[in-house]
Specification:
- By secondary structure, this protein is mainly β.
- It has a single domain, classed as Maltoporin, Chain A (Beta Barrel), CATH 2.40.170.20.
- It has a 22-stranded antiparallel beta barrel. Strands 3-10-11-7-8 form a five-stranded mixed sheet.
- It is globular and about 65 Å long.
């Protein structure tokens, strides 16, 4: 071996030893060649959200994975916030207003959406739940059958299109040879009731997993009751031959009621935090919906170098909603969404370099038949038709990604995507003129990364990427007096991201990830309200600087602890709104500057299990001018239970306490509400408990 190579290997070994000593001193984890038999190494993680499967250490991006125990064990299983709310870079609001859905943000993207998920790509078993217009709904998620949740933080537009903040990829269970049937019930405070049934197994080359559930609650606040009559999730998998497999997915949800209590003013919050906006009660604000999705994923491996994946999916959605607006308060949407994709992965050694090339195309179309009617303020009666139009969104995208190991332990990757998005509106309400029209967006997105992997302890990476986010059909609502058509003044939001990070595993006991990032956003999409209706406008530019740290230690075979920290300094650079108010240098509302989470888990397959988590959230601004704020808070949750086998049965009893110390804090902010109704309070201390029985056959 040449002196140069000896020096290089010696330097790399020295770096790894130095880092190992540093981390062992800082965490109290000893570095030994052998560990006691009773200790269990930290789990190995494979990442799928980067379009081509690879290990967590080899992924040059900030990504976290949540497993089945965290998603299901002794949880309410109502929102994504229960599973991912403590991850670095992720902030979840609105966990108890089911007419608006959980508001999930990644690095600030999605924090200001009034409902649903925006700026983040949501995928379940390879099938997108994000519509072509960029809006994602979470009411069809079945946590009882979820096996893992993967959260990719940072730009993903070069692979997924309009997804600025990142990707949330959920994988549901597949049936195995260990066939079982399970029943579970859970009851709790504020009228919470949940009943679930599951079955999973396999027959020859087929496997199946079926989940059926019903849930309802009266709610902590007035006019906040919700009910899911049916949530059905079915997954069939078949190995057609040694090289080909197919997955068929069916999901159906019937949610006939989710009332909206609305926001409170500061004075109303002090007087009665469990109260509702009187206007919301009078006008019966809330929603009812039915949603059915059918999807198929076909994979074929031609050989060790070539693999192709095809997807095809269809969604039917019937939505009926009421907002506290007299002019157009009743909303009826009949939606059909279809799409498909083709992806090919080619892995080989080219000119002596390990190389993987991923290419793909995607297409989708969303058709919304939308009507809005007036509502009488005093009686809540539905009145005359005020809007009738068919909104169609068509998307077409193509991407390419190449990953190459240029020298040992150094990988360079680059990706590029082109997206064409078209919004069409056909106005069927001609009494106030024809507001039909269309808008077209043509966007290129790019990303480049460098990953250096000298040893498992240190895997630094650098990433630069661009992203875009089109307005959704709801964001395109026209604030003009006639209220029809598409807002002609609204543009797509664009951004460029720079990130420097590192990740590693020490002695199979401690896993860490750390990153710093800077994001420059132009034409940021910001909400404001007018006559209790949310509209959007573009800010000129904003800057986001952040730091994220995640630590997980496997303290014993069944005992682990996690510590996560997020710092977010997000400010407007230049922004003057339509009323000539200047907000240069103001903090972007809805995002706390600091979030710290700590969790300790004891998880055994049988016997006792328990989890304690505590989170500190810094104060948040409620408006662009930073004049209204939600105070900082600390909230703690505790869950515990016991599992025991009896012949072919497994019995589990469990319980939990949320908001253990009874803190009065704000769960959700309604950003820039022109009636100063910013605040939606969280529930006080609440309890739940239940049991499950599984039969193995």
């Amino acid at each position: 071996m040449s002196p140069y190579l000896l020096d290089r290997h010696a330097a790399r070994a020295g770096l790894c030893v130095a880092l190992a000593l540093l981390f062992s001193l800082g965490t109290g984890v000893a570095v030994h060649a052998e560990e006691p038999v009773e200790d269990e190494p930290i789990e190995r993680i494979t990442i799928i959200g980067t379009r081509a499967e690879k290990s967590w250490l080899e992924t040059p991006a900030s990504v976290s994975v949540v497993h089945e125990e965290k998603i299901q064990r002794a949880q309410l299983q109502l929102t994504l916030g229960e599973s991912i709310g403590n991850l670095p870079g992720v902030f979840v609001q609105n966990r108890s207003n089911f007419s608006q859905d959980a508001r999930i943000s990644i690095r600030g993207f999605g924090a200001r959406t009034p409902f649903g998920i925006r700026g983040i790509k949501l995928i379940v078993d390879g099938i997108p739940l994000t519509l072509p217009d960029g809006q994602g709904q979470v009411d069809s998620l079945d946590f009882s059958t979820a096996e893992r949740i993967e959260v990719l933080r940072g730009p993903a537009a070069s692979l997924y299109g309009s997804a600025a903040g990142g990707v949330i990829a959920i994988t549901s269970k597949r049936g195995t040879e260990d066939s079982y049937a399970r029943a579970r019930t859970n009851v709790g405070s504020y009228g919470f009731r949940s009943y679930q049934g599951q079955a999973a197994g396999s027959v020859d080359d087929w496997s199946y997993s079926i989940g059926l559930s019903h849930s309802q609650l009266d709610g902590y606040r007035d006019h906040s009751d919700a009910k899911n009559d049916i949530l059905l999730n079915v997954k069939f998998h078949v190995d057609i031959d040694e090289q080909t497999d197919m997955t068929v997915l069916v999901n159906h949800v019937d949610a006939p009621k989710a009332n909206d209590p609305g926001g409170l003013t500061a004075d109303e919050l002090k007087a009665d935090r469990r109260g509702a906006n009187p206007r919301n009660i009078d006008m019966k604000s809330g929603e009812a919906l039915e949603n059915t999705t059918l999807g198929m994923v076909l994979q074929h491996a031609f050989n060790e170098q070539h693999e192709t994946t095809l997807t095809n999916y269809y969604t039917w959605r019937d939505f009926n909603g009421r907002i506290p607006s007299t002019s157009r308060g009743r909303i009826d949407i009949d939606r059909f969404f279809l799409g498909g994709s083709a992806k090919h992965v080619y892995t080989d050694t080219i000119f002596g370099f390990d190389n993987r090339l991923t290419t793909g195309i995607e297409a989708g179309e969303q058709s919304d038949d939308r009507e809005q009617r007036a509502i009488d303020r005093m009686t809540g009666a539905v009145g005359a038709l005020a809007l009738s139009e068919v909104q169609t969104v068509t998307t077409l995208g193509a991407f390419i990604q190449n990953e190459v190991q240029v020298v040992p332990n150094v990988e360079v990757s680059a990706s590029m995507r082109y997206d064409w998005v078209r919004f069409d509106t056909n106005d069927n309400f001609s009494t106030n003129g024809d507001d039909s029209g269309n808008r077209n967006f043509k966007e290129w997105s790019f990303a480049g990364t460098v990953l250096w992997s000298p040893c498992p302890i240190a895997n630094p990476f650098f990433r630069i990427a661009t992203a875009f986010e089109t307005p959704t059909t709801t964001s395109f609502a026209n604030p003009a007096p006639d209220g029809g058509g598409l807002n002609p003044d609204l543009d797509a939001q664009t951004s460029i991201h720079y990130e420097l990070g590192s990740k590693g595993v020490l002695a199979d006991r401690l896993r860490y990830e750390a990153s710093v990032f800077y994001i420059r956003v132009k034409d940021e999409l910001l909400p404001y309200t007018q006559d209790f209706t949310t509209f959007y406008e573009n800010a000129s530019s904003s800057d986001r600087i952040g730091f994220e740290l995640g630590l997980k230690a496997q303290l014993h075979r069944d005992l682990s602890a996690a510590l996560n920290y997020t710092h977010s300094k997000f400010e407007f650079d230049k922004f003057t709104d339509g009323n000539d108010n200047r907000f240069n240098g103001k903090r972007i509302p809805g995002v706390p500057e600091n979030v710290v989470s700590f969790e300790i888990d004891y998880q055994s397959v049988l016997g006792p299990f328990a989890s304690f988590e505590v989170q500190y959230v810094d104060e948040r601004d409620a408006d662009n001018g930073n004049t209204a704020k939600a105070k900082d808070y600390v909230v703690a949750n505790l869950r515990a239970g016991y599992s025991q086998d009896f012949r072919d049965f497994t019995l589990t009893a469990f319980g939990g306490v949320n908001n253990l110390t009874g803190q009065n804090y704000i769960d959700n902010l309604r950003i820039n509400d022109n009636n100063a109704r910013f605040f939606e309070p969280a529930a006080s201390r609440n309890y739940h408990g239940g049991a499950s029985v599984s039969y193995h056959f």
